[in-house]
Amino acid sequence: MARFLDQVAIVTGAAQGIGRAIATRLASEGCSVVIADLNLAAADATATEIRAAYGGRTLALPVDVIDRAAVEAMVAATLAQFGRIDILINNAGIFGNARFEEMTDEQWRRMVDVNLYSVFLVSQVVIRHWLGQQAAGAIVNLASISGIVAFTDSSHYAAAKTGVTGLTRSLAMEMGTHGIRVNAVAPGIIATEMTRRSLEAPELSGGWLRRIPQHRYGTPEEVAGVVAFLASNDASYVNGELIFIDGGGTFAWDKPSDAQR
Q1: Is 29 exposed, middle or buried (CB count within 10 Å of its CB: 0-12, 13-18, 19+)?
Q2: CA-CA distance, 248 to 261, in Å (whole number)?
Q3: Is 157 tagged catalytic?
Q4: Which terminal Cβ of the chain has fewer Cβ within 10 Å, N or C?
Q5: Could you give the angle at the alpha carbon of 230 between the alpha carbons of 227 and 114, nearest 5°?
Q6: What is the pLDDT of residues 61-71, one digit of tens each?
Q7: pLDDT tens, 79-107?
Q8: Catalytic residue among 54, 157, 217, 237
Q9: Residues 6+ away with beta carbon under 8 Å from 91
Q10: Is 83 helix (H, G, I), strand (E, B) or coil?
Q11: Which among 150, 143, 158, 155 has a CA at the least distance from the CA of 241?
Q12: Are 9 and 90 within 8 A, CB to CB?
């Protein structure tokens, strides 16, 4: 299957975890992929693996997604290399725990900047290009079940991810008439490098698994499959949607204070 033949995608935070799985899935279906990440060495490694596996065109770029100049340089480099942009995946993000009463201004601002402001910034720069070229495009944002379900010690993360959902729906309304679709996915508990420490803690993991009807964690590849659908023409009439990828767990958290993500 080559749903993305001759298309170009930018995936932020694509050096590892969910972002890496998304970039790999898009490339496996014929897409040229820009691997944008702060960690250039890891981005290069991902790009090399994709080329070896699928023979596709990739470009690894070091990008700070909360720096406007860096984001504009990323878009310029993408256009110089590939001549177009068809898909944007806003995946870059961070997570951390902090009790609300102890949270510092820096902790709050950093979480909101990386998880929400970056979605605004990268989307704006790409959308301005599309509007200037009168081109259509598809954006998929990474939200989270934390925007729906309450977890302890992560109010800054929940606020940022809730903002991603609101931004997604607002952009879908504003940009739909220009042929630009904007959707989001809300992963549940996904086994990645970022979550491994928590998933290995028996006092947490047992409680989590009991609340997931499928009684297992999700994989980055399962998230990538849904993202690929939303980015493809198979979802040409899907706009402003939030799709949960959580094994059915989002609405089964009867005691949300017992669990953290």
Answers
A1: middle
A2: 16
A3: yes
A4: N
A5: 50
A6: 999 999 999 99
A7: 999 999 999 999 999 988 899 999 999 99
A8: 157
A9: 11, 12, 13, 14, 18, 19, 22, 142
A10: coil
A11: 143
A12: no
Return the pLDDT at 195. 62
Q: What tokens appear for 201 in the block? A: 């803690």
Distance (Å) of CA 71 to CA 37, 77, 106, 174 = 11, 10, 22, 22
Is the entire prediction scored with pTM above 0.90? yes
102 token code pair: 């102890």
3-state DSSP call for residue 235? helix
Instruction: Give me 227's structure tokens.
Output: 């993202």
Of 142, 117, 232, 126, the C-alpha closest to 178 is 126
* 50-64, 143-157, 161-175: least confident range: 143-157
Which residue, chain included where needed, has tokens 């980055």?
Answer: 220
Residue 11: beta bridge partners? 35, 89
Distance CA 2, CA 204 (A): 40
Angle between helices 118-133 and 155-175 (to 10 degrees): 10
Rg (CA), the chain: 18
- 8 A C-beta contact, residue 173 and residue 141: no
Q: Phi first, then psi: give them for residue 260, nearest 5 degrees.
A: -135, 155
